[in-house]
Specification:
The chain is α/β, with parallel strands linked by helices. Helix content is about 45%, strand content about 25%. The strands form 2 sheets. Strands 6, 7, 8, 9, 10, 11, 12, 13 and 14 form a 9-stranded mixed β-sheet that branches. It has a 5-stranded parallel β-sheet with strand order 2-1-3-4-5, with helices on both faces.
């Protein structure tokens, strides 16, 4: 009798194990990031925030579902490399989701592969407006340069009448330039000159001197976040433009939180339009910052890329939960296109289902010294901003 019970117990255990194994499912997330090269600081922001989110939410997945994160390094803006890594993740690794994608050129090159394979991509940074129109399987968790540039132009037109623009010569820079000029001119402002600067190793001093010589009332800029933002701020300071009465304004790329720690007092007074500031007085932001500092300390704070990465992971986890782990690409895209989060660290966010693009607050911020830290203090809020490029051009 005891032997029979033992055999029954073993059989039940085996059946239970088989049922658990059958119900277990691994969801593969491919993360294309920049973890080497001159823009590795941006990749570090993504890496830290993704790990933080996954640690905090490991118990919020459906029963039996596990996440496998597959990370690939694109080394920076390189369309061929971005496309190759995307293809490998889709074909060889058979990922269910793609995310990361700091660079617009890399993302654009990958778009046809997403459509062909029906692989959902949640963009963590790449900010050109056109990207979400390039594949029905792209949704953006970050921002567009039209969102910040257009609002900056409208704000600047209430303060100044003559502006000079200087932007990085790639699609997001062109978007920022065009958006600012439209907003500024719509408000009655005049553009006295514009320049587009190379993405790699630009001589910011020469470009800044040219701007100073034209004596505009204000200079608008957009440079890639990371080391270039520190370099352009130093050029502004070294040439004495503030002393010459020429204010410096622009997108938030030039004063990202992780780079402010390298700039000293030079950026104080800089006005920017952006979607996040670690100085934001929101409970969700305070909780996020506290979690970040517990995990990583205070030396390198989180910036807008880190927050977008955090929100992108929440979008992916939401799609997994709502499908109980049995993910289907088209069902996933429907969920992502209707995503809403009233409590992101940056404030309320949602996805416009018509465009699959982010809707969020844009903050007018002034860079100030707060205690022993230089921070971007939110001084005005433009709520629930859709991508103006799509609104103005009826793009879907």
């Amino acid at each position: 009798m005891g032997f029979l019970n033992l055999r029954k117990g073993a059989l039940f255990a085996a059946l239970a194990f088989a049922a658990t194994a059958a119900s277990a499912q691994t969801i593969k997330i491919g993360l294309v990031n920049s973890t080497s090269g001159p823009f590795a600081t941006l990749g570090d922001q993504i890496d830290k925030s993704v790990k933080l989110y996954m640690k905090q939410n490991a118990d919020k997945l459906p029963p039996g579902v596990k996440i496998e994160l597959i990370v690939r390094d694109d080394g920076g803006p390189n369309p061929d490399n971005g496309k190759r890594l995307t293809q490998e993740l889709i074909v060889r690794d058979k990922v269910n989701f793609l995310t990361g994608y700091i660079w617009t050129p890399n993302t654009a090159a990958s778009a046809p592969l997403l459509t062909e394979s029906k692989t959902p991509l949640v963009i963590m940074n790449a900010a050109a407006s056109v990207l979400t129109t390039m594949s029905p399987y792209i949704v953006r968790a970050s921002l567009t340069l039209w969102q910040s540039g257009y609002e900056m132009g409208k704000w600047a037109s209430t303060k100044y009448k003559r502006a000079y623009t200087m932007v990085t010569d790639f699609v997001p820079g062109h978007d920022a330039e065009t958006a600012f000029i439209k907003g500024f001119r719509d408000g009655g402002g005049e553009i006295v000159g514009s320049v587009r600067m190379p993405i790699k190793s630009p001589d910011f001093v020469a470009f800044m001197q040219r701007a100073k010589d034209l004596k505009p009332e204000v200079i608008f800029n957009m440079v890639t976040a990371g080391a270039p933002s520190t370099a352009i701020m130093k050029a502004y300071g070294e040439l004495g433009l503030r002393q010459a009465g020429i204010p410096f304004i622009g997108t938030g790329d030039a004063v990202t939180e992780e780079e402010l720690v390298h700039m000293g007092d030079v950026p104080i007074g800089y006005i920017s339009a952006w979607n996040y500031s670690m100085a934001g007085d929101r409970p969700a932001n305070k909780a996020y910052l506290a979690a970040w500092e517990r995990e990583y300390g205070k030396t390198i704070p989180p910036g807008f890329i880190a927050v977008a990465a955090y929100d992108a992971m929440d979008m992916i986890y939401t799609a997994i939960r709502e499908q109980k782990g049995k993910v289907d690409p088209d069902a996933t895209m429907k969920i992502l296109a209707n995503y809403k989060n009233p409590n992101s660290p940056r404030g309320p966010i949602s996805i416009d289902p018509a465009t699959r693009d982010i809707v969020q607050n844009i903050y007018i911020r002034e860079t100030r010294k707060v205690g022993d830290r230089v921070m971007n203090v939110e001084i005005a809020t433009v709520p629930n901003v859709k991508d103006p490029w799509k609104e103005l051009n009826n793009k879907r």
